[in-house]
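Before going further, learn to read the protein records used in this course. The integers have meaning only within a learned vocabulary of local backbone shapes. The record below shows the convention in full.
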Amino acid sequence: MAPFLTLLPAAARANDWRPNQPMKLLVAAAPGGTTDIMARLFAAHLQARWGSTVVVDNKGGGRGTIAGAEVAHAAPDMLTLLCSNIGPQSIAYSLFRNLSYKPANFQPVSNMIRTANVLVVHPSVPVSTVPEFVAHLRRNPGKLTYGTAGVGQSPHVCGAWFNQLTRTDAAPVHYRGSAPAMLDLMSGNIQFMFDNLSTAIQQIHNGAVKALAVTSAERNPRLPELPALRETMPELAEYEMNSWFGIFAPAGVPRPALQAVNLEIKAMLETPEAKARLNEMAGAAAYGTPEEFTAFVNNEIEKWGAVVRREGVQIDAT
């Protein structure tokens, strides 16, 4: 009983914390994507719950690193938060030579949503399963190309890791976002790509592209007939990739404030509105304690760092 009683004052203090002035929520992406959608859902939730202003500020430049740099060097008062994703908060550490922040500059608050990517091919590619596709790639080394949303973005590292594990050779073609890559795939200018399931599902349903597998560990309920990559071949048994979108604060924020914001993320994800939006995006709620999210982010940094290093890709932050 005593340990439980010792927890009560901390919980009470967490629930009692409220911002004493407007909050700013920086978004490491342009308006319209999943990062932006989740940021605006959370800002609206906080305003409704706390009655305080939360300003959403999109700063998608530098592949999301500009927003991250600003929050990394903000005052640790819980008034400036970051809504970011797998790119700027995990892949970036091994991708960029001159990144102006490091993991120690942040206090991860909680993840919010995880979504699978999906492997899609142009209908002219003569395959219907992942083993058939790998065999096709092996028969045509260096002849097929895959689209990405940009160097180091999740569609790129998905393709790179796929090639590494299957020992296949296909060249990436980098675009400014997934939308133009998908257009080129539908036109047959590239042969395949990994795209976020939430944005690719319409093209899959209308037959513009052919889906082979999802990148998550399990099948997705929106397309239950589609296998997970890891179940298709022994070479892909360790393959698991989820795009994820969470909240970060500057390092050193007060524990009661950290707990209060963390619990509001949990509360938001349990609302009917949030559940409906996550379902629309073929995503799953991914709440975690600050400790759980910190451990998860550190594991993602290590995992994708190994993929990027094997690929031999590094660029300058802009």
In short: The domain at 8-114+243-311 is CATH 3.40.190.150 (D-Maltodextrin-Binding Protein; domain 2).
